[in-house]
Amino acid sequence: MASLPLAAMAQSDDFGLDFTLEAQKKLSKVMNLSFEGELRTRDNTKTVDRWSAGLSLDYKAAKWLKFSAGYTLLYDNNERISYFDATDDEVLDGDVDAGDPKKYAKYWATRHRFSLSATFDKKLFGDFRFSLRERWQYTYRPEYTVDQRWSYYDNAYDGKPKTYESKNVHVLRSRLQVEYDKKGLAVTPYASVEFFNGWSLQKTRFQTGLDWKLSKQHSLGFFYRYQTVRDDEDDLEPNRHMIGLGYKFKF
After folding, report:
1. What is the pTM of this model?
2. Quick one: three-class SS letters along 45-92?
3. Which residues are CB-neighbours of 62 under 8 A, at least 6 positions away?
């Protein structure tokens, strides 16, 4: 048990998979309603990272402007490590050093996420479409209590409950994307870069992929993503490579 969280602290990049299913209903010429389910893995695909399910509403205000609003329920596989500080008795006695791992908890818990987006897009240089999406994202993590934590010092569970306080996180996500959108072509390749900003830059996400339109109702999406993390609320999240596969149905 003790070796698992220590492995999670390694500095090497992680690898995961991302699977999505989306159903989209056209409500009018300018409005769509979508439902999306997602599964992500981490730890080189060995661990389920999270499940999620969300609803979103899109409104096409103009040919070049779209607004969106959404809600997502996230069910996360959390890992948390606390560390010894200079005032701990074990540090004062010289048994451990300040900054050494102290206790570890792993648990599943929910988060609630709301978002508002504005997307500007325009075709330039022939069939290349450029878009800028600005998204405000608010995530609420409810208070959660675990029954006990693993103690690295005692090499055993401590038998004491630990409560993690609720948390509110506001993030501005700015994504710039270019795609080759040629009329009559079933495959649309794209590349994008996205910045996650709180009070500072938290993440940068680079992604390239393609959307494959199988018919008027069915399409597949494939992507490769590399995400770097600087300052994020997910304590143990490393830089990560990810391969994604998605299916979309329109009705």
Report:
1. 0.90
2. CCEEEEEEEEEEEEEEEECCEEEEEEEEEEEEEEEEEEECCCCCHHHH
3. none
